Amino acid sequence: MNGPDLDHHLAELRRLLALPRGRQPGALAGLRQRLPSPEVEPWNHSFGPGTLYEAWGRSTLMEGLYAANARTARGRLAERRGWVALEVGGGDGTLWARALPPDARGTLVLVDPLPEVHRRVAAALPPGVRLVSRVARIEEVAGELGEADLAVCSLSLHHVAGEDAARRAAAGLDGPGKAEVLAALHAALAPRDGLLVLNEADIYCDLELEPHDPVLVDRLLDSYVRRCARALADDIEGRNRVAADRDLRERWWAVIHRWCLDQVDAAERPAAERDVYELDVPRWLALLERAGFRVISRGFTDAYGLFCQYLCRP
Fold first, then answer.
1. In terms of domains, do 178 and 219 share one?
2. What pLDDT sits at residue 76?
3. Structural domain of residue 106, as residue ranges?
4. DSSP assignment string, 42-110
5. What is the pTM of this model?
């Protein structure tokens, strides 16, 4: 993509964001029709240098999240000898590369369904940290987590549909929901007086919202376009003072296009087939309390009010 094209697309996005909320869905549909559709790698499946995921990790949104999580993890694990940390959804291992000093010693239990994630996280760990890989979704191994001093669930539990197993069953799904996963994390942390670090977007779009519901469309647009795409556009235009070359700016635009703008299509899918089931802050607080957690701190890790970090004790 050449510079003028990127500038033109950004200008169209800015015009969309300036419209009244009720006119934004129609404007978004028109914008997407006008955008070219280049072939890019599937989201969350490629993690190395030059990928969309790597570009996403360098955004202002993720820099703030990584920094907050790394401070918390570093401080928590420094207090414990022979520590055990648990991570649900590992990404490319950036958290641990930032949080752990070269002489760190402990065990990291990683739960993620993608083997590539386990390889990336292993490469990011200091030599004294042992990796225990559970190549599975958290719902599949929630009852087999063992004990931990720290658990990190960063932008991962919104992939678990339904607030609990009963709500999942009503939608034709089996297995545990968010409440049961949180209860399993509580059971893992309680014996060691551990700490849960949870990061999630402040938006509600769980199973109760049916396909094509205008409320669902508006909430997806609010999270992915009004906040996430806006933040990335600010990065591209240098408003956040992030150092970025042309390649990185183009990859940020690809994330806006293929993830933020296209994600609103989730509103058209059957509820059981969506890949995002977010909860807003009040619902996360209620669910954490239901699972037995005490929230000792919470706050947004970005200036856009998108990602909230919850620090919780059992």
1. no
2. 95
3. 81-202+283-313
4. PTTT--STTSHHHHHHTSHHHHHHHHHHHHHHHHHHHT-TTEEEEEE--TTSHHHHHHS-TT--EEEEE
5. 0.93
